[in-house]
């Protein structure tokens, strides 16, 4: 069965964004882009909440077309155009969306159906609200966290709505020269 892996930048104190959704504190560089690019290149399905999907859709389809496109922009734009996208949204309609499925109800049933299909891991990018919904229904199988060396003090937490202990097993970790530490966990 396929697994859902939550890919998220996080502050040391557990926030994925500032109080107003700010993400200007996230450190990224070519080393991280290359590392992430290798991993997501194995993925064939990307899972988003509506807000993150709209942000991605507003940039990645044409990112490679810019004359100043970076290597990362070109590679990720190509991957984004090929990957199947699943969006959790109660307001979006899927008419005319290319290679995209919208889930608006019966979340657990639809996600479990997707997990049963053949393919690779399903990568959940950002999307704190979608992540919270999936956490509440025990649908996340792993966490791929990029811990940034900053304490925000307040913001949108990664772990919200948890009522029971969830044991995790560390699969690996990686320290980047910019100070970010990657932690790759599976739900035990």
What is the number of independent domains? 1
Question: How many alpha or pi helices?
Answer: 5
CATH architecture assignment:
3-Layer(aba) Sandwich
State the low-pLDDT regions, or none.
none
Global structural class: alpha/beta
Order of helices and strands: EEHEHHEEHEHEEEE
Q: Considering the protein shown, what is the CATH homologous superfamily? A: Dihydrofolate Reductase, subunit A
- For the record, give the distance between the C-alpha atoms at the N and C termini, rounded to a whole number: 15 Å
How many β-strand stretches? 10
3D shape: globular
Helical proportion? Answer: 25-40%
How can the largest sheet be summarized? Answer: 8 strands, mixed
CATH class type = Alpha Beta
Mean model confidence by pLDDT: 92
What fraction of the residues are assigned to beta strands by DSSP? Answer: 25-35%
Radius of gyration in whole Å, from Cα?
A: 16 Å
CATH fold category name = Dihydrofolate Reductase, subunit A
Strand order of the largest sheet: 5-4-3-6-1-7-10-9
What this model shows, in words?
27% of the residues lie in helices and 28% in strands. By secondary structure, it is α/β, with parallel strands linked by helices. Helix 1 packs parallel to helix 3. The longest helix is centred in the middle third of the chain and has 12 residues, at 71-82. The mean pLDDT is 92. Pfam families: RibD_C (PF01872). Residues 2-180 form the Bacterial bifunctional deaminase-reductase C-terminal domain. It comes from Pedobacter boryungensis.
């Amino acid at each position: 069965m396929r697994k859902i892996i939550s890919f998220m930048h996080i502050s040391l104190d557990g926030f994925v964004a500032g109080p107003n959704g700010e993400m200007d504190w996230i450190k990224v560089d070519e080393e991280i882009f290359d590392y992430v690019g290798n991993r997501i290149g194995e993925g064939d399905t990307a899972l988003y909440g509506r807000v993150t999907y709209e942000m991605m859709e507003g940039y990645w389809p044409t990112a490679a077309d810019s004359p100043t496109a970076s290597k990362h922009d070109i590679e990720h734009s190509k991957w984004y155009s090929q990957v199947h996208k699943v969006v959790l949204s109660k307001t979006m309609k899927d008419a005319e969306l290319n290679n995209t499925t919208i889930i608006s109800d019966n979340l657990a049933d639809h996600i479990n159906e997707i997990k049963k299909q053949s393919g690779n891991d399903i990568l959940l990018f950002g999307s704190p609200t979608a992540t919270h919904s999936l956490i509440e229904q025990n649908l996340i199988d792993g966490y791929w966290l990029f811990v940034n060396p900053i304490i925000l003090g307040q913001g949108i937490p990664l772990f919200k709505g948890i009522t029971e202990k969830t044991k995790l097993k560390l699969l690996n970790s990686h320290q980047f020269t910019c100070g970010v530490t990657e932690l790759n966990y599976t739900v035990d």
